[in-house]
Target: Integrator complex subunit 1
Amino acid sequence: MNRPKPATVRRPSAVPKPSAHPPPGDFIALGSKGQANDSKAAVTLLKPAPAGLPSERKREGSTSLSSASSLTGLTKRPKLCSTPPLSALGRLAEAAVAEKRAISPSIKEPSVIPIEVVPTVLVDEIEAAEAEGNDDRIEGVLCGAAKQLKMNRAKPDPTLYLSLMYLAKIKPNIFATEGVIEALCSLLRRDASINFKAKGNSLVSVLACNLLMAAYEEDENWPEIFVKVYIEDSLGERIWVDSPHCKTFVDNIQTAFSTKMPPKSMLLHGEVGRSGGDLSAGSSPHPAMAEEEDSQSELLIAEEKMSPEQEGQLMPRYEDLAESVEEYVLDMLRDQLNRRQPMDNVSRNLLRLLTATCGYKEIRLMAVQRLEMWLQNPKLTRPAQDLLMSVCMNCNTHGSEDMEVISNLIKIRLKPKVLLNHYMLCVRDLLNAHRDNLGTMVKFVIFNELSNARNPNNMQILYTVLQHSSELAPKFLAMVFQDLLTNKDDYLRASRALLREIIKQTKHEINFQAFCLGLMQERKEAQYTDMEFKERFVMHITDLLAVSMMLGITAQVKEAGIAWDKGEKKNLEVLRSFQNQIAAIQRDAVWWLHTVVPSISKLAPKDYVHCLHKVLFTEQPETYYKWDNWPPESDRNFFLRLCSEVPILEDTLMRILVIGLSRSPLGPADAMELADHLVKRAAAVQADDVEVLRVERIQLIDAVLNLCTYHHPENIQLPPGYQPPNLAISTLYWKAWPLLLVVAAFNPENIGLAAWEEYPTLKMLMEMVMTNNYSYPPCTLTDEETRTEMINRELQISQREKQEILAFEGHLAAASTKQTITESSSLLLSQLTSLDPQGPPRRPPPHVLEQVKSLNQSLRLGHLLCRSRHPDFLLNIIQRQASSQSMPWLADLVQSSEGSLDVLPVQCLCEFLLHDAADESASGEEEEEGESKEQRAKKRQRQQKQRQLLGRLQDLLLGPRADEQTTCEVLDYFLRRLSSSQVASRVLAMKGLSLVLSEGGLRDREEKEHPMEEDSGDSELLQGYQWLLRDLPRLPLFDSVRATTSIALQQAIHMETDPQTISAYLVYLSQHAPIEDQGQHNDLSLDVARLIVERSTIMSHLFSKLSYSAESEAVLVALLSIFSCYVKRMRQSKEGEEVYSWSESQDQVFLRWTSGETATMHILVVHAMVILLTMGPPQGEGDFCALLDIWFPEKKPLPTAFLVDTSEEALLLPDWLKLRMIRSEVPRLVDAALQDLEPQQLLLFVQSFGIPVSSMSKLLQYLDQAVSHDPQTLEQNIMDKNYMAHLVEVQHERGATGGQTFHSLLTTSLPTRRDSADTPKPKTSPETPQGQSRIRALTQIRVLGPEDDLAGMFLQVLLLHLENRFVCSYSFLYPCICNPTAAVPFPDPTPTF
Model:
């Protein structure tokens, strides 16, 4: 901030006189002897004292000199006294009436009489005068000190300058008076009386600069006299201007010029940084040595830098005097430059001053006109280079002067490489100085290149410009070419040559895309809107676009293209970058033709289509080189092919379709043809490292199909209410689907997915190329009924389509020619088809199928679709065809995927493995004698592929990179087939699992490290199922598939018919089924229970005494283990715990034991456990005895059961189950079954067959007890006493005991003749279907009694004379023989021998 302005101003009494500018180095002596130059005057701004200094008194407010007589606006600091003296007031009045004087670098003699004191008492004198308030004495003493310094400039007194330094630190304001400023400024000027050749000492000048800096550090408005002494020293010896110790003072003075100075690192002259001035220019004498001078200067600077406050700040100091300072500087420099002197005599200091004052545009213009001569002068080279840098850095207005400066800079011709490099560096700074300099620079360079006075450095300048602004410079270059093409004269040939030369000389460093986009920008200037040859302009711009694209072929691109043609992959990055560049330029060119060109001129349709084809490189080759035969004939075809075999961008394709849909010269048919050509051309360039046909927008499908739409003539009026059908032009319609097929293959995640889900015809074509089968209906439809339905539907659609087209054409003819349309006279019938793209798939014409087949062979569309995992089209087809017997296309697919099995889904690999195994099993071990060599080679190749495939699947499961997802996918694919309804499918799944899971090396190694002792016995028993019992649990990620495997096997045991396979499944489930979760445990128990109860045939075979083996023993142990674990868990669960949901509770029973334990189970689980107990104990009866104790505790009542949903008591052991218990050989089960039996139940059981002798003895004993207890009731339930008597006799013959009392009852009451009408109906067998879900009381089924003779004959033939082992097999036939119409319950088929 500015300090308060002083209230008093001192001015000398001498009348100022105008004078001319004295030469540099003019000396003005200080003192009281009248040696001052009275013709010169100066008004000095005085700086007030800063507030806060305790040693200074309070000053009065300031007044500024606003009078016209004050030229410099300088004011003076007031004296240090409370009341201004009269002399000061007199000088103030004198200043008010002073005349305006001209700006002069000279300094008038101080008006203050210097008072010389001894240096040792200088500080005391100042403090004493301050204490007295004597400002005049302070000023006089300081002027006297300045005089002493001037008189002893060579070797100043150390005490003196140190005292002044001290005073400047503590009282800087005392130096800001007019007289002191004049005295100090005189120290900054050269002493003309001193010998020029003597060595100078800059200590006094440095001291003066720093004293002035201290005095004016905080003031924003500095005296103009500082600029004058700066100019004088800059043109003279530069004693203090170049001194680093005066840098702060000098920098603040230079703010008057607003010059942006180059950084020190860019300054080339060697004198910068020197403490003294230019030695060659001469300086004041000094008798001391140089070392002493340096030490004194260092001491001075060290003293000054002790306080941070002395480091000064940089700010604008001459804002109020800007105009006068500029006028003075311009006058001085014009005078210097206009002097008549040889160019060799120009001082380097003048160039340095010009460098510092380049902030003025007039200075820049004056300097640039002479720069070329100065740069070529060896004596001035370095300062001239700095001046050039300063001119370029300060050219920041882009006014007429600066544009002239740029024009002159362009014309500078430099040959030495050092100068040329510096010139290019300056060009970069010129471009940074103002944003509009770039366009002006490019324009001037191009026009200079086309002129007669061509600068040989033009191309290097352009190269620098293009490197500096890679995005903007090409745009401005393109604008210049646009300007050239607007001339009346045809500049195309010259423009082509110039463009080629620019690209060649700039080493292809141009951004071609930005340049081409610049060529296509719409211009609004008058010369463009009023252009006479607009059509020619568009055609020429199109030609330049094509040339620019071909010019992008560098030597590296050419080399990479040749290598690519040879099948080598070298420098692919360069080639891909070029291809993407061409694709981007073509996108912009199509945009230009669509949006900009119609606003420039309405081209003829032929010319418009020509331009479109030309930028897309689909035009005839001669149109690209007819102007100047470039490219040369040797490279012509190669260049055109490189520019055409490029990707196509989505915007390009979409815009071509939009152009075809709009009313433009490119019709729908041409647009479809062009889009089809571009898509197929781009698809042919496909590679793994480039996206040639990337499309994101699903709307592309609708745009393509809309091009096919048929529109009837607008001038034809259709009947009111008639809605014309949606029709498409057949040729375009069947051209659209292959086009979309290619796009879908390259974009499966969006276009492909939409086609698969919404466009059945396109989906059908996708399936065709994936299966490599081009028949209709497609081979993916395996169901014959579905295939027939599709054919019939196609016939119906074709017939309806024909009728609609005939009706539509009839309406058109009625409105125009009045002709009657028939099928034979119809013109549209062969040209149109129904447009229903989302309807049923249509039969493609044969030529379309051939085209699709050819496309698939050349572009590998099926491979691209099969490779897609998200979505997974291939997996979808495989899953739909899972039940098919043959998928030959899958084998071809895997065979064709050389080395790329990883791109196919694991389900595909698994399916191929299964079908390969099926083919091998179907062919069997055929003799190879009849095979040809080709067949053997194919077989070996197939076996090798199978080994490769198997290795891939094993790596997914067992390899180090096995992950959870792939492991689950592989196993799930095979495990799901284990529950197939087809035996062959189940066998193939097991074979596949055996192949995949059994890896020799890994198996052997793990057997050594981790022997599987716990299931070694089962593995030995079930040798064919090692993959399940041994290899599967060894998978690295077995835990991740444990649950899914158990679920699959639980489903498989209900479908499998091989007892040994079921045995392996049950053993696995008992060992590895996850039972941590209650729900999983419930499902396992119920599934196994259903197997035991409902599949009695399988169970009979497993546990038949004829076929009972160690495997049966292992299965029984496994089953007992499963249920033992389950029942223990259920008995531990709390009573209130929710085990089943309400919807499942209808088949559940709540069990309660006498010990107080409870459990809730499915009734089938209870029955299954009882049936298992009837099998008898295996070796090691641990789980068997535990179950037996739970369900049939010794000498304790059985558990009671209640229905969960109604709380009614349930019948836990129905009669069919009691019969199974009686037939068992477990005494505890027999005793439990015979407890509390009614007489009718005893009679029913005794008639059953397959009961062991011991159990029959107990039954007969119970019948004896019943006779003793209630003979009448028992006798009433006997339907045929003769039959029963014979039955008891037969049992006695078998060895049964007891029943004599019962037999006596039968024989004593047996009449001699029995009437069949009185015979009561016998009861049926108590067995009921074991799968019943609701348990209720036993329902008795009455059967009519047989004739006596028939019954006797039956017993004699079938019972008495047959072996006991066969009796059981025919027991259930008796009721049927007795009464063929009676309902006979199905017996338990389990035989007991």
In short: The chain is about 55% helix and 0% strand. The chain has a mean pLDDT of 79. Residues 376 and 414 are 8 Å apart (CA to CA).
